[in-house]
Amino acid sequence: MVSMKDIAKECGVSVAAVSKALSGQPDISEATRNKVKAAAEKLGYQPNSAAKVLRTHRSHNIGVLYVDEAHNGLTNEFFALLLNSFKRVADSRGYDITFINKGLSDGNPGSMSYLSHARYRSFDGVLMACVDFTNPEVRELALSDIPVVTIDYSYENRMSVCSDNSLGIRELVVYCAKMGHRKIAYVHDNNGTQVSEERLSSFKETMSGLGLALPDEYLPEAQYRRTEGAKKATEMLLSLKDRPTCILYPDDFSTLGGIAAIRSAGLDIPGDISVVGYDGIRVGRHLTPSLTTLRQPTELIGETAAQKLISLIENPAETRIEKTVIKGRVYEGESVSKIG
Amino acid sequence: MVSMKDIAKECGVSVAAVSKALSGQPDISEATRNKVKAAAEKLGYQPNSAAKVLRTHRSHNIGVLYVDEAHNGLTNEFFALLLNSFKRVADSRGYDITFINKGLSDGNPGSMSYLSHARYRSFDGVLMACVDFTNPEVRELALSDIPVVTIDYSYENRMSVCSDNSLGIRELVVYCAKMGHRKIAYVHDNNGTQVSEERLSSFKETMSGLGLALPDEYLPEAQYRRTEGAKKATEMLLSLKDRPTCILYPDDFSTLGGIAAIRSAGLDIPGDISVVGYDGIRVGRHLTPSLTTLRQPTELIGETAAQKLISLIENPAETRIEKTVIKGRVYEGESVSKIG
DNA sequence: TATTTTTACTTAAACCTTTAAGTAAAGAAA
DNA sequence: TTTCTTTACTTAAAGGTTTAAGTAAAAATA
Fold this sequence. Notes:
- The structure is a homodimer.
- Chain A is α/β, with parallel strands linked by helices.
- The first copy, chain A, is built from 13 helices and 13 strands.
- Chain A has helices at 4-11, 15-22, 30-43, 49-56, 77-92, 114-120, 136-142, 165-178, 194-209, 227-239, 252-264, 282-286, 298-314; strands at 61-65, 96-99, 104-105, 108-109, 125-128, 148-151, 159-163, 184-186, 246-248, 274-276, 293-295, 323-326, 329-331.
- In chain A, the strands form 4 sheets. Chain A has a 6-stranded parallel β-sheet, with helices on one face.
- In chain A, β9, α11 and β10 (274-276) form a beta-alpha-beta unit.
- At the A-B interface, α4, α5, β2, β3 and α6 of A face α4, α5, β2, β3 and α6 of B.
- Chain B binds a DNA duplex through α2 and α4.
């Protein structure tokens, strides 16, 4: 590996001069700077991030924490798109992205805490998404002195970027009501997260605001992104004697389970039952009928998170800690019928 | 930051003794080792990877190169699943994962080569997937002295893990033929990659091996993962006077475009036209009809790649460079009808 | 011309860890 | 008892970079 030392020798200057020349410091003559740059080029010099990090305590590396719950973390399209746009901004600002995990200390995998891992790698900042934010280790990291941005969850006094779940559900319900539906069910995940709670209370409020009846049976539970649960919840709804005409699901993927259940029962979508998803995954647009859903501006969420985090890293003093709320939009597919 | 120096002071031993005690070296008494460990715990010691990397030239960090072509890299379910299982193995072996990009030198984003970036971060090894393997910079990285594993492409004398594309296509065609189809079309991406070429020639061979006619019009082109192209190709196929009864698509996602086109034409799947995908993405199983496809053992590919790469990193001498071929399996969905 | 300021460097230390080589003391072998 | 070996350390250097502080020469000012 050719280092600054080799360039220094080649040019007959000190290592310090080489460092300054390459990093654009002012107190180096143009002549020397050019000589150094030429030598660096000629010798095939590659900077060494480890040395840089060691000396400066800045890694230009951002840790990303997400949990590979049920082995499908990355295959969650919401997270994948988010990470993609986050990465694009990070790349352009000179930051790399490394996944945070439970490390390996003394050869025992998983023995490090998330915070330890973040410190071990000297991450300049951390993105947290799709994790159990109530987990003590997750909290520890979020509340540490490392700059952090959380997605869809807000800690006291930390930066967060959240989608407007209340508004999203409200708009979906209003849309369905506008299409003439009065019996609207909501299959929801009662996992205790802010997201779930916001959505559920928004659903209830909107329904009552519209003067629509909401029997308890219209609120079955099912986990996010699980077709099986959605299928069961749907079967239950279909068996009601006063069955709903329209069903909202917690996300697009589980909606597929609902669709399968409805079709198994020999019913037509949207002729007999209308369905509504949440998220706006791409396949939804290519289904027949195409899926009516709340399309989350995932790219925008990722970009915003990256900008906020980098701003927090580079200008902690000037950056206001805030919760940024980003609105989605109803995508009017073909899965909700006009009735009444 | 508390370092070994602090522990050394606390325990009244040298920094070297601390290092040895913590890393399990033999020439340290049990008494000292325990004292050091206790002090480390008490002071909240965190090791520093930068210093370790600088000294040892081992980062325990693996670079992953994939190209965010059309901004959807990670949302490619094949890659996401692959990366997920790769990461799981890497995590358990104590390796982190960092994305490779074009870095930022002199403040110009994208100015570093992939290889420079890999050296800059001292990656112990590199995984390459979903990239243009003919790109000179990609080649440069693959053919460097850094241990590398490529997915679905083989360089001379480099480790690779590939899915068995020839077999995959053959099995699909044989399955369709067994279901009674004789007029089988193949919408394919003619992008010049090994994958595409293997598949196309396997298709041609299998068809001729089965004695099935293959007019040129049965081989329209369309890009991977683009519904639009698949739609156009399908419309063309439907307009033929001797139209196929079964259409193979390059991947599941583009199959959705084909399905939409077939339904737009008022035709039933699989009653009028049968369709077949490739990959085995999860939504395919939840469509109606569920999608017949070649399910790639993506998890296995990712795990294998991780094992091979780590083996290459840790035991370069004992590790044989090889191309590992992994077979997929036909998933018999409902999108191919039995005819004849 | 003498003094001050600026320019363009150099020196040296620091960041934290690992490791080869050295050493003093204790234990074993002769 | 003397010599050799082992144990349990310590010393010191190295890895590549940045940066505060120092310095000699040149340029500007008085």
